[in-house]
Structures are given as structure tokens and as C-alpha cells.
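Sample intake sheet
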Amino acid sequence: MIYFLRHGKPDSAGGRFIGQTDLPLSAEGIEQANQWAHFFSKNSISFDAVFASDLLRCKKTAEIIAAGAVKYLPSLREINLGEWDGKPRQEIIDSRPAEWKKRGSGIASFRPAGGESFFDLQSRVVPAVSEIMRGAGNKLVVTHAGVIRCVICHIMEAPLAKLFSLESAYAGLTLIDDSKTPAAINCTNMRLCP
């Protein structure tokens, strides 16, 4: 089984595109990770391997939960938003209305200058996840909303244009049964706290 966990709430993310901006966890995000650590321990859920994006918000979430070694994979990073990364959403809407409209009409293929499209992200993430699936036992993967949505779309054979119809809350958990061929999604966006 693969436990895909979105990192806890980051510090000062409000209203900005954060993509690969390397924000630490907020106090709330640390508490969310602690709650998952307690849940896994209380329910005797252990992991044979733990993987995480190498960005701070995922690293800290994984470190709080995992007692053992964590393998950090740059391939599990959030989408690279290029020139948009770290900028307030409203600033992009106001200063680049044509790009914003193009993004809205083709979310899966839109690529901000210097960044990735969701097609690019899926092409980067799926091989890494396929490699993780080759391992036996329970695996924890701490990563980002875009990554999890792309993986779910791939497994469900759903168009990437639908990825934002999939909810992915901070510290939300998605279970994927990788013992089946093809892999099956058991549940998505399970949360311990609001």
C-alpha cells in the first residue's frame, strides 16, 4: 500500500503561487504532521520505506512522521511555476491577463515562462512513483497537491484537465493499493483535522 500524504500547511502561503518556493511548515502544519505520526503509531501502521519531496514543507512533515530514514526525491517536487512562483495570484491576474486566460482555457498544457505544465509534471512524477511501486510493503510518500492529483489522474486514466476537481487538503491522505494491477485508489483526501 502507498500512503500519499500532502505536506502540512506551510508558513505564509496565503494567496500566492508557491510551487517550488521552499517554505517551511507553519505551526499548524507541524501539528498536522504530529497528528499523523500519532495516528500511524496508535494504529500500528509502519512503513517499509519513506519517500518525500526535497522541499522543506515535505521534509519536515516526513521527519516528524517517520522514525527511520527518508529518501528525498527532487522528482516528487511540486510543479515548477517559473516566473509565477512565489508571486501573489492577484498580481499575476492583473499584470498578465492574457496568460491567465490561457491558463484557464488549457490548465493541463499551460506552462508559465520558465516553468512546467501539468503534463510536464505528470511526465516527471509517474516514472518516480512507478519505481516506488516496485518495492514491497507499506510506503509513505510525502509530497504536494499537484503531484498527488497527477498520480490519481494517471491511475484513473482521467484527463489532466480535471485535476482541480480532485480535492487535496493540507495533510490530506490518499491510499493507493499498489498490490493490484493496475493500481487502485482506495481512498482519497482522508484528514485527521479540519
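Comment: The beta strands are 2-6, 49-52, 71-72, 139-143, 173-177, 184-190. The first strand starts at residue 2 and ends at 6.
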